[in-house]
Every structure is written in structure tokens, then in C-alpha cells.
UniProtKB/TrEMBL annotation:
A Pfam family of this chain: DUF1048
Stated name of the protein: DUF1048 domain-containing protein
Entries under InterPro entries matching the protein: UCP029876
Gene3D superfamilies recorded: c-terminal domain of poly(a) binding protein
């Protein structure tokens, strides 16, 4: 049997990934979702709430998102195994927790830098430039 060239298969996969994104990222996402499904109900509920938040304010890049969600699954699997209470994981302010969590990833650094740039621009526009050094020199 002549197997022929794999070129049509590779080309099809390239076109498919242009439309849907990298297939490896989708595989990682499905694995993450399977891990979350295995968590005890209260941990799963917390992860799903955090996941919804991150879908709006987290990374848009597939590879960064996959890494972040895998780390999230690691955190909650370990917390469930140790019996760590949900409130102890998140602290009193869940938004503060998620903002600190996101800062560990490229998008978090980007968001922080853009927030600082935005705040600085508004300060300058209001005549309240508080920078320690003059960068225009």
C-alpha cells in the first residue's frame, strides 16, 4: 500500500490551526478541564469561578493561558489534597488573589505595565506628573 506524501495532511493541519488555533493548546485545555472535573465540588466551584474571571481579564494567548490554567489546576489539586480551606487559598479579597496570580505570567506583567502607563498619562494630563526623573531629557 502506497502511503504517499504526508504533505496534504500537514497542509490541512496548518489551515485548521490558522482557524482554530494550535491543536496542542486545545489538548492542554481538555486535560486541564478533566483535572478540574476531578476536584471536590467546592474546589471545582472556586476554580470555575476563577476561570470565568480569567476568561475576561486573563491572557489571550493560548500557550500563556494553558500554562496559567495548568498551574491553577496544580494549586487546587494540592490544596484539595492538603485540605486547605478555600478562603485560605484566596484570602479575604479574591480579586487581589487573582491579580497577584496573573502577575506571574507574561500577560500580567503586560497589564501592570499598561496600567502604570495609563495612570502616568492621566497624571501628566492633569498636571500632576509625579515621576522621579524626567525621561524627556
Amino acid at each position: 500500500m502506497d502511503t504517499g506524501s504526508n504533505e496534504p495532511k500537514r497542509r490541512y493541519r496548518q489551515y485548521l490551526e490558522v482557524v482554530t488555533g494550535p491543536l496542542e493548546d486545545k489538548k492542554r485545555w481538555r486535560q486541564y478541564k478533566a483535572r478540574v472535573k476531578q476536584l471536590p465540588e467546592n474546589y471545582r466551584t472556586a476554580v470555575e469561578a476563577l476561570e470565568r474571571y480569567l476568561m475576561h481579564f486573563g491572557p489571550g494567548d493560548g500557550a500563556d493561558a494553558a500554562s496559567m490554567f495548568e498551574d491553577l489546576a496544580d494549586l487546587f489539586e494540592q490544596s484539595a489534597a492538603d485540605g486547605t480551606p478555600i478562603r485560605e487559598i484566596f484570602g479575604e479579597d479574591p480579586v487581589e488573589f487573582v491579580e497577584a496570580f496573573v502577575q506571574n505570567y507574561a500577560v500580567g506583567r503586560y497589564i501592570r505595565r499598561e496600567r502604570e502607563r495609563f495612570t502616568s498619562a492621566i497624571d501628566r494630563a492633569a498636571g500632576e506628573d509625579t515621576r522621579k526623573e524626567d525621561r524627556s531629557v
